[in-house]
Design goal:
- Helices cover 59% and strands 6% of the residues.
- The protein has 488 residues and is mainly alpha-helical.
């Protein structure tokens, strides 16, 4: 008996959100999406019962893309979902699963396996967060409903809350995917990044853009002569936030431009004369979502390093040394940690304690990891989400369309798609990785990291396109049937 037959009773019984029967009106989709967004913000503001002060955000600078909120019910954010996706992508890419996503039975098994992996990853993420010292400290005792909880019981209570939050965000994502617009993961990233970006502009304290400029203009911040090194450093990289502002604006402009760069393959309807269309192969064909997988892989490596540092008293220095903020300052875990902000690599400013050669090695590893990882995960993403040449050719064939000048044959259409999709996928994935490192090195408003901002802008742009498409299909039901949207 194979693994599918053995696991089928479990995987097919995993709870799931029921799919809508027939077409869901656009307004109802908007309501579901808005409702889940409100619920997300509500859950991020529920503090874990029994938590004590002094918690360390184990995700650190990755919080923008992991979403959720430190010390809240959504402590783990979308981390377990993304980690489970990485595992499935790698297993699927190596053909170890033996699942055919065109087979309805295998589709159910795949979805059940994904949910089971998310549950396992939530447990594996929550356990060290709660029970390893320093990350989520618990109160020594807690009285609740007349019952007295000891320290271990309080920790167990916190673990249950974190676990429940991880499961909630899994099914919130599924609700958005089936009943709303876009994906829940994308929606939560937009919400997390937007919240930090707005706070970075308007928060009435240090590191708020408008507040810091108010202090500069009223003389409360000494910038010195504008032609001096210290004055320029203060304006451009510290209280002035000039470089961060320019980087933020450039990321917006570059992503919107890159989304508009495309190769358009002409299509015509085989049976309806005059019915023509175009299939766009965008420069960022795989979207920026594979970048979540790359950064999540880096986050998991740093996660392991922090746990080893907290539990292994004699951890060798070549493996990793850590500073007071819980960030790696030397060893393997330092070199494989991403560049988060300008202060991590500008050794001439005095903010970096490492030697120049160490910083250059770290930059090189981060750049290589992001460019190569972006390209590799983009290829995996395209193949596992039915965006590859074969799946695209079959979709075009099933819609009744064909490429003018070519026979109406799936194999012929696939060969045409193979001229563009694989190359554009690799180039787009590598470009996104390069942009993410560049934005991180220069910094952004609100400290959302370049990757987080890149994801938020691209996902928002795609969400806008999906909303426009939904509105068009709402006005023209025949288009909905052509694109497989179902009937009323």
């Amino acid at each position: 008996m194979g693994w599918k037959e053995a696991a089928e009773p479990v995987l097919t019984r995993m709870p799931e959100v029921r799919r809508p029967e027939g077409h869901v009106p656009f307004k109802r989709k908007l309501l579901w999406t808005a409702g889940i967004l409100v619920l997300y913000f509500f859950l991020t503001n529920i503090t874990l019962l029994g938590s004590a002060e002094g918690a360390t955000d184990i995700f650190g600078q990755f919080r923008s893309i992991v979403a959720g909120e430190q010390g809240s019910l959504l402590q783990v954010g979308i981390g377990p979902i993304v980690t489970a996706s990485i595992v499935l992508q790698l297993l699927g890419g190596a053909n170890l699963l033996g699942l055919d996503t065109d087979d309805p039975r295998d589709q159910v098994l795949y979805q059940g396996l994904q949910k089971l992996l998310v549950v396992i990853m939530t447990v594996l993420t929550a356990l060290p967060m709660v029970f390893a010292g320093g990350f989520l400290p618990a109160q020594q005792s807690l009285t609740l409903g007349g019952f007295e909880f000891g320290y271990t019981q309080v920790q167990t209570l916190m673990f249950v809350q974190v676990f429940v939050g991880g499961i909630l965000i899994l099914y919130m994502d599924e609700v958005v995917s089936k009943w709303g617009i876009g994906s829940g993961i994308g929606l939560f990233i937009i919400a997390s990044v937007s919240q930090r970006l707005v706070a970075g502009f308007v928060q009435p304290r240090s590191e708020g853009f408008f507040y810091d400029w108010y202090r500069i203009l009223t003389g409360r911040v000494e910038v010195g002569s504008l032609v001096s090194g210290d004055g320029l450093y203060t304006l451009f990289l510290q209280e002035g936030h000039v470089i961060a502002l320019l980087t933020t604006l450039l990321i917006f402009a570059i992503v919107v431009y890159a989304e508009s760069v495309r190769i358009e393959i002409p299509l015509s309807h085989a049976r309806v004369k005059g019915a023509r269309g175009r299939f766009p192969v965008k420069l960022i064909y795989a979207s920026v979502l594979p970048m979540i997988l790359v950064r999540a892989l880096q986050a998991n490596i740093q996660f392991i390093g922090q746990i080893l540092n907290s539990q292994w008293a004699g951890m060798p220095g070549w493996l990793g040394t850590y500073g007071g903020e819980g960030q790696a300052t030397g060893g393997f875990f330092y070199y494989v940690s991403p560049i988060y902000r300008p202060e991590d690599w500008m050794w001439w400013t005095g903010t970096v304690t490492q030697d120049m050669w160490q910083v250059l090695i770290r930059i090189s590893i981060d750049l290589t990891f992001m460019v190569v990882g972006g390209a590799v995960f983009a290829v995996f993403w395209v193949e596992t989400t039915d965006m590859g040449p074969k799946s695209t050719a079959r979709q075009i064939q099933n819609s009744g369309m064909q490429i003018p000048g070519f026979r109406q044959n799936v194999g012929v259409i696939e060969k045409v798609m193979e001229r563009y999709i694989p190359q554009v996928t690799v180039i787009g994935g590598a470009l996104v990785g390069l942009l993410a490192v560049w934005a991180n090195m220069l910094g952004t408003i609100g400290g959302v990291t370049g990757t987080g901002l890149l994801l938020a802008v691209s996902i928002t742009y795609k969400l806008y396109e999906e909303i426009a498409e939904e509105q068009m299909m709402e006005m023209h039901p025949m288009m909905r049937e052509m694109f497989g949207g179902g009937k009323d």
